[in-house]
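In practice, a research group might receive sequence data for several interacting partners and want a quick structural hypothesis before committing to experiments. The following worked case mirrors that situation: the sequences arrive first, and a predicted assembly follows.
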Amino acid sequence: MSLPIGRAMREVFGETVSDLADADPRIVMLDGDVGSSTKADIFEHRHPDRFLQMGIAEQNMLGVAAGLATMGLIPFVSTFVAFAVVRPLDQIRVLIAQTGLNVKITPGYAGLFTGVTGKTHLIVDDVSIMRAMPGMVTVCPADDVEAAQALRWCAAYDGPVYVRLVRDATQRLFDDSYSFQFGRAVVVREGRDVTLISTGTQTPRVVDAAELLAAQGIEAHVLHVPTIKPLDVPAIVAAAGRTGYVVTVEEHTVIGGLGGAVAEALSEHRPTVVKRLGLQDVYGESASNEALLELYGLSAARVADEVRALLGSRKKEAIAQS
Amino acid sequence: MATEFRAPEISDLEEAARRIRVEVIRAVNQAKAGHLGGPLSAADMLAALYFRVLRIRPDEPDWPDRDRFVLSKGHSSIGLYATLALRGYFPVDELATFDSAGTRLQGHPDMTTLPGLDMSTGSLGMGISAGVGIALGARLTGRGEVRTYVMLGDGECQEGEVWEAAMVAARYGLDTLIAIVDHNKLQQYGWAGDGPDGRLPPEAPGELVAKWAAFGWRVLEVDGHSMPAIVEVLDGARAGDGRPTVVISHTVKGKGVSFMEGHYYWHTRALTTEEFETAMADLGEHVAAPNGGAP
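A structural hypothesis for the assembly, expressed as tokens:
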């Protein structure tokens, strides 16, 4: 029994930022000529005077956002993740992160679900890059419910924020009673055999994987980390302490992202074996969403298989050492 | 307390420009490092802007309705710092801290440390984009009187981002945006060729005018070392015609110091004691010998 499909984050993005702009005249939307894909077009329909088409010129777009922020406006920057993060990276570094200006970098098309685009559009290392940048908050919502709340939070926060949004409808993890807390991780399942730590839209698949494991007698403890930076170190230390064995799972390269962040935190605060599932230092490719999840071992079934195998080999190691 | 500011005479502006150059040489000599050629070529324009053209309040640097100035060629920071100090934003003595530990006067302008800076710059091509955002922001917030001035280098105009910004500014008809290109005909190193010291200028003659015009900008040209001409062109640029404006300011790199003028290798360089004294003499400044003349 797997989690149901929710609404597409991009739809929620267009609607939520438009709703926020109803109440706050400082909010403006910058589009890099893909508003019909990212659903920034919803904002254009509702607030045409505050929709700023920047054309196919992303370096300038991030610089314009910084200038707008100095005039007291709250710019939301929208394009695909690849063109919002790496193409204008130096503009983000110098004009936004170093200045601390109030710019919201909220691109769609994160992770593997990019509409069959291939490796140019499918960026695997955005979280590693953004969390390494001093002064940059990094948020990866799990589903449409959390995305809406994170966007509302970020509009009220004064400073640069990166919110990683997804194109297609993905599984819904949270109900309306959920409340996103900036900088806080959330235990979404209790267990004693292994700690699974995940982020973004991978978390619902990890919860499904935990159900598959439970059917085989393995009780996984699952921690969802929506804010990669600042990282909720106490929650990660506590979750590791529940089982003494950690597996991180992310729709992203295993280098420097969630897995890297967790390994860094635990090595300093509670040395624990950390296995990292995700893209193993490779680029993506064109394929259906389902095929990509299988290819990179991120479907619920593949994650469950991998965790079971890791636990099996761990048991053998323990026997060999005794 | 706001002080009544009297519109200065041309001779006052020329004296301000001379003092900017003197403080630039003094600060770079003190720091034993720093850019010289660019700040010296830009000094007359900076004097005209800060002592006449810009609507600013040095004792209220964050005044919301002020004109904005972005030094997109951020490596000329010491020229801007000298200007701000002389205009009363901070004590002139503080220029001696340029580039030293803990200073507000960073090698490239940092708006988080020094009041009076409207943007942090240093990575070339970015200031003009920020200027487009500022001008758009002034329009969206109903501050139609605000003018946004952005000073670029001519070498900087090789950055692709400059032309992204030029395209978007023209699209939005940002006629409150005034770019000034300090066209001193030299970049840090550039291409080899039959120009001065065996280097070619960043652009061919007329190339910048043609490019900005092709992007839909109103293009004005001026002798960037003639104060009456600078004042006339800046006064004219303030009234928009529906297009963004660029002032191509024809200047000489290292202007005012005999041995620096027109030489690319004075882009950035430390001075010997003898060079320092010659530079000060060229600028009409008397320099006391070290230790007050004691042997």
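Before designing any experiment, note the following. The beta strands of chain B are 68-71, 148-153, 177-183, 218-223, 245-250. DSSP finds eight helices and five strands in chain B.
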